[in-house]
Amino acid sequence: MALLAHVARGCSRIPKLQLEAALSVRFQSTLSHNDTKARRARELRPRRNYLLNDEVEQHRKSLLQQSPEVEEIPVQQAEANVPRDFRHVMPEFLPDPNPLYRDRVTEKLERMDMYRRRTCIDIPEFYVGSIMAVTMADHHAPGKQSRFVGICIQRSGTGLRADFTLRNVIDGQGVEVRFDMYGASLQKIEVLKLEQRLDDELFYLRDAAQEYSTIPFDFEPVPLPKGATVPVNSTKVKLNPRPWLERWERHELKGVEDLNLPEKKYRRARQVAKPWERWDLMKRQRESINEDEEESIMKETYMETESTRRARGRQKASLKKTR
Amino acid sequence: MNVICRQAVSLTQAARSFSTTSCLHELRKLSRVRVVDNSSIGRAAAVAGKPGRVIHVYNKQEVATLGDKVLLAIKGQKKRAYVVGVKQRQKAGVPRFDTNNVVLIEDNGAPVGTRITVPIPSILRSKEGDFTKILSLATKFV
């Protein structure tokens, strides 16, 4: 109980001296001339669900914990063969690695909400570069719903705030729509053609010829053989001549043809490039979730989504029988 | 030693003394817009390579969004227009267009053109304003 109370109050019970020492150490490293008031306030704010290891250890060793009346509940360790690349299939279940946003209780609750949403709507596997169709509730449309077809150019966000962006060219006009994956107004998400592209984001399609992102609204679904791996579409896009929305020569794009720029531009790109970041182990550590944690989350996700999938299959089979 | 350090710091700061945030694509005064109806004046402006310019936005924020009325300077005339498509980042479910699109209207609110050639965001139908006549010209909604 005391432990719970401590969680609720954050680190307010940490001895003052200790807190000040910790803060001064942190400030030495982070305080700089461009610090804003908001940022400093954020640093000072007690962290949610933040416990010091010593305190936890103290509670663990307390007499309360050793009481014979308390029964230990065995944790159910169900067996699941999680596919190795499952985190690429459902990346939104992994939390944001930024420690300022970490909150394990909220993450767990959000994941539970996501599983519940997935029992209502089928959210299939898709990647950036897949061709998709989304049916959305639209109060003012004649059939109370509208359908948008397009190529997925971006996938971002984690948890319930995960979203993806579809792009299409309709009547010569480039249109993009961002959808909340777990939004309540989505009625159906179809993957018409499951494939990957060479890049993680396809924003350069905005600076390419329109035929690269033109998809007819009556696009026929292209079935993928069962058990086949997701194909990688290795088309190289030819960008329009400059001006562009971004300096694409600085983005290390794999899916574009030679940019045909003057040497000056490439030289500048080399100057501002940070090739060492690829080998920065600390950076990689900071920007990724701990391996054990990732494994446990993915296991839970796999089991939950598989059971939903199986239930849906059974439902379909019974529907067929009754007809 | 100290001097060298300070020099090094000033050099690195000089390299980053300007902001490099991405463009917000806001539709403000003096931004160029694309006329998407079949009015002759809009087409002539596009052919001449001088698309209309926003010279006033009829809202307090001075940034036009979907469904806002703007005043354009186009072909040496002042014309009112409704914004029917923006480049700016939109909420989930609201389309974002590659160009800032407007539809010209007369001073009495009647549209100048007779047809709109590009898709129109469906969310305009739920907005308040007297652009029902414009919506009736649309051929497609997204």
TrEMBL record, chain A:
<dbReference type="InterPro" id="IPR001857">
    <property type="entry name" value="Ribosomal_bL19"/>
</dbReference>
<protein>
    <recommendedName>
        <fullName>Large ribosomal subunit protein bL19m</fullName>
    </recommendedName>
</protein>
<keyword id="KW-0809">Transit peptide</keyword>
<feature type="compositionally biased region" description="Basic and acidic residues">
    <location>
        <begin position="296"/>
        <end position="309"/>
    </location>
</feature>
<feature type="region of interest" description="Disordered">
    <location>
        <begin position="287"/>
        <end position="323"/>
    </location>
</feature>
<keyword id="KW-0496">Mitochondrion</keyword>
<feature type="compositionally biased region" description="Basic residues">
    <location>
        <begin position="310"/>
        <end position="323"/>
    </location>
</feature>
<keyword id="KW-0689">Ribosomal protein</keyword>
<dbReference type="Pfam" id="PF01245">
    <property type="entry name" value="Ribosomal_L19"/>
</dbReference>
<keyword id="KW-0687">Ribonucleoprotein</keyword>
<dbReference type="InterPro" id="IPR008991">
    <property type="entry name" value="Translation_prot_SH3-like_sf"/>
</dbReference>
<dbReference type="GO" id="GO:0005762">
    <property type="term" value="C:mitochondrial large ribosomal subunit"/>
</dbReference>
<dbReference type="GO" id="GO:0003735">
    <property type="term" value="F:structural constituent of ribosome"/>
</dbReference>
<dbReference type="GO" id="GO:0006412">
    <property type="term" value="P:translation"/>
</dbReference>
<comment type="similarity">
    <text>Belongs to the bacterial ribosomal protein bL19 family.</text>
</comment>
<dbReference type="InterPro" id="IPR038657">
    <property type="entry name" value="Ribosomal_bL19_sf"/>
</dbReference>
UniProtKB/TrEMBL annotation, chain B:
<dbReference type="GO" id="GO:0006412">
    <property type="term" value="P:translation"/>
</dbReference>
<dbReference type="GO" id="GO:0005743">
    <property type="term" value="C:mitochondrial inner membrane"/>
</dbReference>
<dbReference type="GO" id="GO:0005840">
    <property type="term" value="C:ribosome"/>
</dbReference>
<comment type="similarity">
    <text>Belongs to the universal ribosomal protein uL14 family.</text>
</comment>
<protein>
    <recommendedName>
        <fullName>Large ribosomal subunit protein uL14m</fullName>
    </recommendedName>
</protein>
<keyword id="KW-0496">Mitochondrion</keyword>
<dbReference type="InterPro" id="IPR036853">
    <property type="entry name" value="Ribosomal_uL14_sf"/>
</dbReference>
<dbReference type="InterPro" id="IPR000218">
    <property type="entry name" value="Ribosomal_uL14"/>
</dbReference>
<keyword id="KW-0687">Ribonucleoprotein</keyword>
<dbReference type="Pfam" id="PF00238">
    <property type="entry name" value="Ribosomal_L14"/>
</dbReference>
<keyword id="KW-0809">Transit peptide</keyword>
<dbReference type="GO" id="GO:0003735">
    <property type="term" value="F:structural constituent of ribosome"/>
</dbReference>
<keyword id="KW-0689">Ribosomal protein</keyword>
<dbReference type="GO" id="GO:1990904">
    <property type="term" value="C:ribonucleoprotein complex"/>
</dbReference>
